Amino acid sequence: MTVVSLGVFLGALLSGFASILLSFFIYLKYRKLAILFYIFFLISLFFIILYFFFHLFGGIATADGVKRDEGFLDIIQFIGSLGFIAVAPYFYHFIIGLRLTRVKIIIWTGFDIAVLVCAVIYYITRIPEIGYYILAPSMALTIVYGLYIVLRNLHAVADKRLSTALKTFLWVGAGFFPLILLDMLDTRIFGITIFPSGFFALPLYYLVLNILSIIFTMVYFNRPAYLQNGRLTEFFTGEYGITSREGEIIVLLLDGGSNREIGEKLFISYKTVENHIYSIYQKTGVKNRIELFNLILSNR
User: Fold this and answer.
1) Distance (Å, whole) CA 19 – CA 277
2) Cα separation of 259 and 274, whole Å?
């Protein structure tokens, strides 16, 4: 392993720790659920990189070679991979502003429990097929699901800062993905080893990801919530110039009320409700209710 590879790993771990710490302090300030899931998401990635770091650079040199504490490595890998599988789907939904239905919660909870049981069996029995055909595909499925959720709903993200950040993360991920595959497979092309020093693309990707995460946290998360305890915050109404009547209508829209139901509750005509909704769309820059919901719920 070269000094450059070691330096990239250390830089990735330090930036990861800084990203987690910054997100934690901002969570204490605003108490937003999206930030909480984001912290656990970053922690799981941190442990995954930590596992590769100790796997490559850890251990004690002996006459029989380098001996590593396999139990310690198992714990780190266990926390990182299972933590990612458990937290990532919820983070994807919260960051986009999607509602988590009861059916999805039941499905993902059952999936998490099944993976946890398989992981425990794997670490006890060391049956390689469990790792190859269950644990690794589960990790891949979680990543693919996240890409699917983001790509499918990216057009409905009204917040320009969030939309730009998501597009940046997608492009960076797409650019690094083939390099990570080459890195992990140690592929030779035309007789030339692409990464002769061992794992390099994965920690480099994580380093870039953490730098972007720090910027994203400061620009997007470091501001008050839009919705708190079922009510719009003063920050949201001031940010978009929402009147008190428009605020009432938005809350009723979030509760699933139709234009007619909203009119009856507020004692105003159907046409007046339509005019208010049109004004809300113009002020917030959204095109429909879905985009309005995503805008507010992603920052609740």
Assistant:
1) 38
2) 7
